[in-house]
Design a protein that fits this description.
The chain has a three-stranded antiparallel β-sheet with strand order 1-3-2. The protein contains eight helices and three strands; from the N terminus they run αααβααββααα. The protein starts with 6 loop residues before the first helix and ends in a 14-residue tail after the last helix. The protein has helices at 7-18, 28-54, 58-69, 75-82, 86-98, 120-127, 137-144, 147-164; strands at residues 73-74, 102-106, 114-118. Helix 4 packs across helix 5 (86-98). The chain has 178 residues and is mainly α. The protein is globular, with a radius of gyration of 19 Å. 60% of the residues lie in helices and 7% in strands. A hairpin with a 7-residue loop joins strand 2 and strand 3 (114-118).
C-alpha cells in the first residue's frame, strides 16, 4: 500500500519539478499552464492515494480529522473550519452519518443544533493514515509558504481569475468535488 507523501517529500518534488526542463518553452503562458497541470496532477494523485489507503474521500477525511480534534462541532463550525459552504458541509455530514462514521447529538437548549462526534468506525478510517492529521496536499503545501509569497501569489491569481471571468462560487467547494 502506497503511503501518503510527507510535506518534506512534497517540497523536494516541487523544488525538483520547478527546475527548467530541457523542453522548457520560451512562452511564459505555456510555462504557467504546465505548472498548473503539475499542481492538478499532484492533487489528483494525492486524492487517489488517500482514497486507496482509507476507502474515504478527501473532504470526508478532512471532516473526520476535524471532528477528532474538536468533538461536538456544529455543522456551521465544521463548514467554517473547512472553508466550505454550509450546505456542502450538511451534505458531507449526511454521508458521514449514513456511513456511521459520525453521529449527531441535539443540544438540550436548542434542539435545532446538532453537535457532531466521531464514531469508532470514523476513528478506524483515520487510523489508516497512521495517526496523521488530514488536511490535503495543496492546503498543507500552502501553509508552508511565507506570508509575503502567499500575498504575491494571491494578487497574481486574482489577475488570472479576473482574466478568466471565473465564477467565485467554486471558491468554497472542496477540491475533491471540482
Amino acid at each position: 500500500m502506497k503511503a501518503v507523501r510527507s510535506p518534506a517529500a512534497v517540497h523536494a518534488a516541487a523544488r525538483a519539478s520547478a527546475r527548467p526542463s530541457p523542453e522548457a518553452s520560451q512562452d511564459p503562458a505555456v510555462e504557467s499552464l504546465r505548472r498548473f497541470r503539475q499542481i492538478f496532477a499532484a492533487v489528483r494523485t494525492h486524492f487517489r492515494q488517500v482514497e486507496q489507503i482509507t476507502g474515504t474521500g478527501a473532504a470526508q477525511l478532512r471532516a473526520l480529522s476535524l471532528l477528532r480534534e474538536r468533538p461536538g462541532l456544529r455543522i456551521s463550525e465544521l463548514a467554517q473550519a473547512m472553508d466550505i459552504h454550509q450546505s456542502t458541509a450538511s451534505n458531507l455530514v449526511k454521508t458521514l452519518v449514513d456511513r456511521k462514521l459520525v453521529s449527531g447529538l441535539r443540544s438540550g437548549q436548542d434542539a435545532r443544533v446538532l453537535h457532531l462526534n466521531l464514531q469508532p468506525a470514523g476513528e478506524k478510517v483515520l487510523q489508516r493514515l497512521q495517526g496523521q492529521h488530514y488536511i490535503g496536499v495543496l492546503p498543507q503545501a500552502l501553509q508552508t509558504l511565507p506570508p509575503r509569497v502567499l500575498k504575491r501569489m494571491n494578487a497574481d491569481l486574482d489577475l488570472l481569475l479576473s482574466a478568466m471571468q471565473a465564477d467565485s462560487a467554486a471558491a468554497r467547494s472542496p477540491l475533491a468535488s471540482l
